[in-house]
Amino acid sequence: VKRATFDEMYRWDRCVLTGVDADSLFIFLCEKQRGPSQEVWLKVMSRLRDKQNLHPDQSASDGKGSLSSSAATVWDGVRIAHDINHLRRSIEKVRGHFERKAYQAIAATEKMKKRYLKGPTRRTSQEQLEALMNATTLEEKRAIEKSERVSRWVQQAHEALNVIHPKTEKINEVSWSQSVLQGIARKLEKLGTFYSNEASRYLRGMGQK
Fold first, then answer.
1. What was the pLDDT predicted at 206?
2. Which pLDDT tens digit goes with each residue over 96-123?
3. pLDDT (tens digit, 9 = 90+) per residue, 157-181?
4. Is the pLDDT of residue 207 over 60?
5. How far is CA 198 from the centre of its chain?
6. Do the beta carbons of residue 183 and residue 159 sit within 8 Å?
7. pTM surpassing 0.70?
8. Which of 2, 5, 105, 122 sits CB 3.0–4.6 Å from 143 for a disulfide?
């Protein structure tokens, strides 16, 4: 086994650790564990190395820290590769999250417009209504701009992940693709959401050895 792939599957509320030879598709690992953790993966991979004489040149995983770091620890010098499919799904979640935020802001503005048209009341003056209307409109503008910005980053990441760039129709150079992905990872991290942090971690993993 020169190119080993690792992942976790879940069946009947149990975690199943799996390992497959990328060339022959031979399944060399399939066992139940209490859950995925670096401690568990270190123990399993060490056993594969010592008991089954597994010494792959490359280890591929979905980008989770416990998988890639365990492989790097057990097999010194192994090339770490990451699953692009999980990465594409992860960055699409970021795009979807901010699109939903933009639509929520649009809905809030429409609701505020209806309230504004009803005019002032004893509790809310015309001045207060105008301030609320302006604040809601500004929030909508910011949400839409952020959604569009994130969408551009996601599209750039997809283009960098492709073998052939869709615009230039030329093969992407690895160094260029990694540089683009690391730049986008830094931008997503600054957004500070669960999905953006997860996607940032995946993107940073694409630049590892």
1. 61
2. 999 999 999 999 999 999 999 999 998 9
3. 999 888 888 788 888 888 888 899 9
4. no
5. 5
6. no
7. yes
8. 105
Query: What tokens were used for 203?
Result: 């993107």
Tens-place pLDDT, residues 15-28: 899 999 999 999 99
Token pair for 198: 């997860």
Sign of dihedral through CA atoms 18, 209, 149, 113? positive
Amino acid at 165: H
**CB neighbour list of residue 155: distance below 8 Å, 6 or more residues apart:** none
Provide DSSP, the chain.
--EEEEEEEEETTEEEEEEEETTT--EEEEEEES---HHHHHHHHHHHHHHS----SEEEESS-HHHHHHHHHHSTTPEEEE-HHHHHHHHHHHHHHHHHHHHHHHHHHHHHHHHHHT---SSS-HHHHHHHHHHHHHHHHHHHHHHHHHHHHHHHHHHHHSSB-TTT-SBPPHHHHHHHHHHHHHHHHHH--HHHHHHHHHHHHTT--
Classify the C-alpha dihedral 69-73-77-83 as positive or negative: negative
On whether the CB atoms of residues 93 and 157 are closer than 8 A, the answer is no
